Amino acid sequence: MKIVHLSNHALNVGNGIVNVMVDLACMQARAGHDVTIASGGGGFEELLARHGVRHVLLPQSPRPSRVPAMVAGFNRLVARIDPDVVHAHMMTGALIARFGVLRRRFVLVTTVHNEFQKSASAMRVGDRVVAVSEAVCEAMARRGIPRSRLAVVRNGTLGTPRLADMAAPSLPALARPSIVTVAGMYERKGIRDLLHAFAALRVRLPDAVLYLVGEGPDRAAMEQLAAQLGVTQHARFVGFVADPRGYLAQADVFVLASHNEPGGLVLSEAREHGCAIVATNVGGNPEMLDGGAAGLLVPPHDPASLAGALEKLLTDRDAHARLAARALEDLHKFSVQRVSDGYLAIYERTLASCQPRRFASLTAGDAATAHVGMADTAGHSAPL
């Protein structure tokens, strides 16, 4: 198959959507398919080239004035490659692919990575809409997408090409007991709740240290909160780390306190390292933790429950050992090979059912809808 993946960018900044796309493209190229990523560019181009994935620059911008250039660039790409499948991972690409051509010979597959965003409804334009968890699938069905057009491919990271050529980084030994989170510094990631929970925990475990691995626009506010709570010396803001395996391998407890989490890759990574895990009971987190068998689930927005779960795993050796061992069980379902196989099967079924070479022209009304929808998209521009 000839496959084109569309994304706003290909930056190596810890963006889960981009990481899933890069893994998928590399695995599909390894399987012998002709694979292209069209994006605004970033830091993954060298990796993609090593794995036989073509990268082309395609501008994607929220400005209505850029719509004609985006459409023209996409049409040039389609004319050059003549893809069988276009796979859009973000709204801008989905709308360009659906409404940017008058007559298309490809099927459009869209993946809903962040269902909690209102804009996720735009992903319904795909011939097949893929959710990254059963929870996301149910949410999209409630938004009116027919179940016959929905499919689920759960995220996974085992065997990721992104880290295959990298030696695990050597880090100074973490202080003990250590609590690690790997998350962007955003309010929705529950960092504020985690800091409040950590401050309460330190009353009972004064030697505990929290490592916050990640970057984001709310970092300064979170550092200020840590100071207000009196935990600055023990809540260590590490910043973005491209390869967090060293932190995961040394964590006494891994925590993900998100308010929304469709199918966090980091839970797969934490399980691979045998972490004892605490996560909020939201979105796809229960599925990533086998319904709570492979990690403690706590309510979101609840620092007291979060502190209690952390204390339990830091003080109850038997509970810690059980969860750490359980995290390592049945990991094959989180392999990138399974993710790739799942998507390829969806491509094949969609091609068989849609017969894309016979698609009719779009109506003028469809094109007008696309122009309005693209005005709400966000992207990272680069010249084609």
Automatic annotation (TrEMBL):
InterPro entries: Glyco_trans_1, Glyco_trans_4-like_N. Residues 176-327 form the Glycosyl transferase family domain. It holds the Pfam family Glyco_transf_4. The keyword Nucleotidyltransferase does not apply. It comes from the Bacteria. Residues 15-156 form the Glycosyltransferase subfamily 4-like N-terminal domain. GO terms for molecular function: D-inositol-3-phosphate glycosyltransferase activity. This is D-inositol-3-phosphate glycosyltransferase. The lineage of its organism: Bacteria, Pseudomonadati, Pseudomonadota, Betaproteobacteria, Burkholderiales. Keywords: Glycosyltransferase, Transferase. The gene is mshA_6.
